[in-house]
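Step 1: inspect the first sequence and its tokens.
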Amino acid sequence: MLGGVYKWWLMVGLFGVDAAKFADGPSVQPAFAHLTKLRGGATQDKKAEQTKTAEQTKTGKVWVTSSFTRDHVRFAWELPGYLGAYINPFSAIEPKTIESVLLTVNSINACPYCTGLHGQLFRMAKVAKMEGPEVEFAKVFATEAGRGAAVKKAFAKLVADVGVGKARNIRALCWALLWGKTTGNSINAVRGKLLSGKLWKLTPFDVLMFAYYGPLFLVIGIMNAGLKFAPNVAPWFHSLLGAILWLPQMLHILPAGLVCLVLRVLAAPFGGLNL
């Protein structure tokens, strides 16, 4: 059943069914309005909602439980657009632009895994200069960690510049890199505690996160070493490689996102449904 639901969701994201309706990402349905009026949730008043969104705590360099559960719901939502940036026939993004956007987001709280992977893909895509409205949006996204009034304003400008389909895919790429760099930095932080023998500094969350994502990022690290010897590639090959790399990420993000959504809903009566 979950597979069928996700296939429908993926088709919506890839082919832009009623794109404007989904342009702002996950929303809270009226049936849950009584929950969203609680502290930390959305609100029926649009101006107050914008204020609350702008005041949400920014995602830091490493995960904490609250930002992990909140952001993984969004990461799961953005998966179709993330894949669409590579293969959607109507709104795919040029490889040079993709790598420029991803490296721009990684410029704040940079992650060595992301630097290694996308630095090599940047070279392989033969990017001469990082510029364009997509890069300008990525700068704002990186500075604000994807949330707040400044990001909404920058996204509206991006839509005007490149269209809603491509804008949604660019934003999905930004969310994907936020996931990658924050998870990579968190993996390294836990590894540092393990190697230093300071096990008393580990939290249960650290252990669970490291066990879940550690193997994936080990593979990424090994792949980064191999990519140093890879030649420049044609755009179609870059898109194919991006779609292939999307798959293991999806297999980790989607289950985590669904679990986090359940946890956030269960906690909503106490803290609001803040996504």
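Step 2: inspect the second sequence and its tokens, then contrast the two.
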Amino acid sequence: MSPDKVITLSDKRHDLPFSKGLLAQSFTSIGVSPSKAYSIAIAIQQDLRDRDELSVSMQRLRALATDALGKMAGEPYAIRYRKLYELSKLDRPLVVLIGGTTGVGKSTIATEVAHRLGITRIMSTDSIREVMRGIFTRDLMPAIYESAFNAWRGLRVPVPHGANPVIVGFREQTAAVTTAVKSLIERSVLEGDSLVLEGVHLVPGYIGAGQFKNARIVQLVIGVADEDVHRSHFYIREVQTDGVRPFERYRANFGNIRVLGSYIEDMAHEHGIPVLMSHQLDDTIADVIEHIVNSAIEEEYDAHG
């Protein structure tokens, strides 16, 4: 069979050309390396040509892809692929909330997760706080004018005896930002769009999944156990931003940042929200996606008995 023969994907309405590039991209979304993903896609293409199977349904292609993944990448990848397809068929928008203290890698993880899950809406709570600054003056809402780890500077009332001002200030800022976060989620759900939201203000207990009946809410917290590894993230951040986010500023406030991390993780444990410890980036992203997919599918199955 000539390698130039065109393979088409057929369904009840129309035919589309087969693309090994798009197929490979779907494999990378479950953590397969780009080179391996492309090799698997080429193997599937060649298998179809060898069979003279030049018109194939999407269901048939998924079956071939799942089988090839199991043989060439390993059964765990085949399982992930099946689950990712199940997720795409669910009938409610998915809202992913990724929390954790400053510098644990939330934004990097959120961006990659959104890309792999095909979610185009992604937002950070810092961006929301920045918008709020344009609406509320410092006199009206001073807490939002400080970084999360220094929100105590905006407190207008005495700190209760024995309380940690870092936590008290952060809680006040989080409460203010959470109001806007809920509005953003409500808007996204109303429009039927999935959303990935990340930020230090996504503290377990402030937003409950039951508040949004028409969405699948999946919340998790990212942590970094090793202080030296955590500290190194800020140096990398300074280099990547050409000094816009200077290492020294975070180094000087590192103690407060770790305090917030412990508080957020304690809240996660209290409310049954998983804390995923960040390690090697690709592995962490794979863990996050696996948790999101499993949680969303389980919730949907529970809802339908």
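Step 3: confirm your contrast with the notes below.
The chain has eleven helices and eight strands. The chain has two domains: 8-88, 94-303.
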